Amino acid sequence: MRQKSEELDDETLVTHVAAADRGAYAVLVHRHGLRYRALAYRMLGDLALAEDLVQEAFVKLWTHADRFDAKKAKFTTWFHRIVVNRCLDEKRKRTPDPLPEGFDQQDEADNAEDIMVTDSANHVLRNAVSNLPERQRVAVTLSYFDGLSNIEAAEVMDLKLKAYESLLVRARAKLRDELEGSKSGLLAVLG
Questions:
Q1: pLDDT value, residue 96
Q2: DSSP assignment letter at 133
Q3: 86 exposed, middle or buried (CB, 10 Å; 0-12, 13-18, 19+)?
Q4: Which residues are in the RNA polymerase sigma-70 region domain (predicted)?
Q5: Rounded to whole angstroms, how far apart are CA atoms 56 and 82?
Q6: C-alpha neighbours within 13 Å on the C-beta side of residue 56
């Protein structure tokens, strides 16, 4: 008796996708689509572009599933690498147009106090992370926002574990330095 696709692990599903099993493909898309869209959105800051890139990554999965080797990596690690690389490629080719002076003025409208506290703290953190060099920013995103283990994140970035951990240590040190200057401001905001 054949096992239902929903009950199979990701690696087995990929082997079914390689054999043109649309049901297995649909399960993988349903199981992981939102997670990778969130990753792409965090990296690119554009939801429509993130959706397009993840869709392209899933098309790549459909056409190149036979390239996946379960002995070398888990599906999620392998697919993380595809999405991250696709996002990095997109960021490299984009050249942002400068905004006119005074375009990005802060909204002075009153908000609920809790929303202000959260938004302010998140803004400081986002700015600190966005000021990191690209590879350090990717490392922080993979480890702290996507919850990957250091081993998985190192595989996604195609680095040895020690090199990845060193990159992460440098990123944390830069964040610590930058946030140290904002510490009094954060404490005032957080009460």
A1: 65
A2: -
A3: buried
A4: 28-95
A5: 10
A6: 15
Q: Residues 47, 41: contact at Cβ < 8 Å? A: yes
List the beta strands (DSSP E) in 70-152: none
Burial (CB < 10 A; 0-12, 13-18, 19+), residue 182, is: middle
Distance, in Å, from the CA atom of 140 to the CA atom of 39, rounded to the nearest integer, reads 12
Rounded to a whole number, what is the distance in angstroms from the first to the last CA of the chain?
A: 61
Six token digits for residue 181: 């200057």
What is the rounded (10 degree) CA torsion for 75, 81, 84, 85?
Answer: -140
Question: Could you report the average pLDDT of every consecutive run of 10 residues in the chain (191 residues)?
Answer: 70 91 92 93 92 93 88 90 91 75 67 62 77 89 87 90 92 84 55 42
The reported pLDDT for the residue numbered 114 is: 60
Question: Cβ–Cβ contacts within 10 Å for residue 11, how many?
Answer: 16
Q: What is the Cα–Cα distance from 75 to 9, expressed in whole angstroms? A: 9
List Cβ neighbours of 44 (8 Å cut-off, separation of 6 or more). Answer: 50, 53, 87, 90, 91
